[in-house]
Prior knowledge:
This protein has helices spanning 26-36, 42-54, 56-73, 81-91, 102-123, 131-153, 158-182, 194-206, 212-217, 220-229. By secondary structure, it is an all-alpha fold. It has two domains: 26-73, no CATH class; 96-226, no CATH class. Helix 1 (26-36) packs parallel to helix 3 and helix 5 (102-123) packs antiparallel against helix 6. Residues 1-21 and 229-236 have low confidence and may be disordered.
Amino acid sequence: MGTKSSLGSTVTDVEHSAVEPSDPCAPFRELASASLDDQTTVAESARLDDHLVGCAGCREFLDSAAALNRSLRFRPSAADPAFVASVMARARPARLGRGGWMRPVLAWCALVIAVQSFGPLVFGSTDGATEHLARHLGASGMALAVGLGYAAWRPHRAFGLLPFVGALFAATVVAMVADTIAGHRAAFAEATHVAELIGIVVLWMIAGSPGWDRSVRRLPLRRRSAHRSGVLGSTR
């Protein structure tokens, strides 16, 4: 018997694409990446740990991924003068004047106010006030004296005392003007508040005179001089 063949037929080469088997470590590398972001469950972390014990390739992958993660999260710090200046401006550092003269002045004001407030607080007597009211006035004055004395001791705390002391300053001025206009007290009699007013002003100066630069900048003469020196630039 002869073999049956077809003359003129063409031989067709069939190419088989080689399909690589899936990487068995791929799921564990995904778990390793997720573990760096704390996104793995307890069971997944245990599976990953068991796999890393016997797989040097995955351990190397995890180490390199962790190093890359750290390099992206942390960068070497660089000096930034503008940032330091902005932080210091917001921190309101104390300004004690040339030779530090403001601290002794503030301490003197605190002492004077404390002496003036001792009698009303302890004995309940002051000009024309009831005993109850006199003790309240003495307590307020003593609190102010303690606050000013503390600011003289710790001047960096001055800015934090300004809201209380500023409100007291405004109320004291209004009361002084009202009593003087109504004739209840002579202007000379209001001299007992001089130490309070001086202490409050000095406290404001130690705190950096907040609001002063903004107010002065609005003055016409200051704006013209600043414009001539090129500080403000063009006003167009």
